[in-house]
Design goal:
Order of helices and strands of chain B: EEEEEEEEEEE
Strand content of chain A: over 45%
Distance between the termini of chain B: 36 Å
Distance between the termini of chain A: 39 Å
Structural class of chain B: mainly beta
Number of helices of chain A: 1
Structural class of chain A: mainly beta
Oligomer: heterodimer
Largest interface: A-B, 21 and 27 residues
Order of helices and strands of chain A: EEEEEEEEEHEE
Number of strands of chain B: 11
Radius of gyration of chain A: 14 Å
Largest sheet of chain B: 7 strands, mixed
Radius of gyration of chain B: 13 Å
């Protein structure tokens, strides 16, 4: 079965760190474009970061310099290291597969999503 | 950044109704647009990609159209399970993709 399962969320104080994991099954993380998307309570969806199949990484301005996306090919797992956390980072974090490597650059979308993991930044 | 504006933000409709949601882009994005459905406490689900292509497994009552700056998602006959929030997403300015603010569809 093709699926993504996130873990690692929780309560952290402002300025703290947290690492989110996203374990994939049914497909290979390193062969795909993988993203993190977040959703603050009661709000809409916000793109956070992407890692290309070739390894290039990109970030939203709101997290640049604080968050790092990576993957472990041996574990088929995506990560998001979050440092210097702020109250405004409080959200459900989803990992998602962008099927760009499968369907090409003109027809891609986020076709597989994890269930989400909640991150709360509060003192 | 490319902004996406959905209208309406809130929609009340009845089972069997035909509904249309509009997504307008702040600049032309060709057909680099997708639509998602999200139910409370759940992850978004891909419905439409490339503006008008139905994702495998999605009921045919869902359809998408448009190109450039104006796009629509239409549900031809609302079913009880369709009441949810809908988001459009542009993938033109990859990798900095953006989402619309969402349209909440509720039962009248």
């Amino acid at each position: 079965e093709v699926q993504l399962v996130e873990s690692g969320g929780g309560l952290v104080q402002p300025g703290g760190s947290l690492r989110l994991s996203c374990a994939a099954s049914g497909f290979t993380v390193s062969s795909n474009y993988m993203s993190w998307v977040r959703q603050a309570p009661g709000k809409g969806l916000e793109w956070v970061s992407v890692i290309y199949s070739g390894g290039s990484t990109y970030y939203a301005d709101s997290v640049k310099g604080r968050f790092t996306i990576s993957r472990d090919n041996s574990k088929n797992t995506l990560y998001l290291q979050m440092n210097s956390l702020r109250a405004e980072d409080t959200a459900v974090y989803y990992c998602a597969r962008d099927n760009k490597a499968i369907v090409g650059a003109t027809r891609n979308a986020y076709d597989i999503w994890g269930q989400g993991t909640m991150v709360t930044v509060s003192s | 950044d490319i902004q996406l504006t959905q209208s309406p933000s809130f929609l009340s409709a009845s089972v069997g109704d035909r509904v249309t949601i509009t997504c307008r882009a702040s600049q032309g994005i060709s057909s680099y647009l997708a639509w998602y459905q999200q139910k409370p406490g759940k992850a978004p689900k891909l419905l439409i990609y490339a503006a008008s292509t139905l994702q495998s497994g999605v009921p045919s009552r869902f359809s998408g159209s448009g190109s450039g700056t104006e796009f629509t998602l239409t549900i031809s006959s609302l079913q009880p399970e369709d009441f949810a929030t809908y988001y459009c997403q542009q993938l033109y300015s990859y990798p900095s993709i953006t989402f619309g603010q969402g349209t909440r569809l509720e039962i009248k």
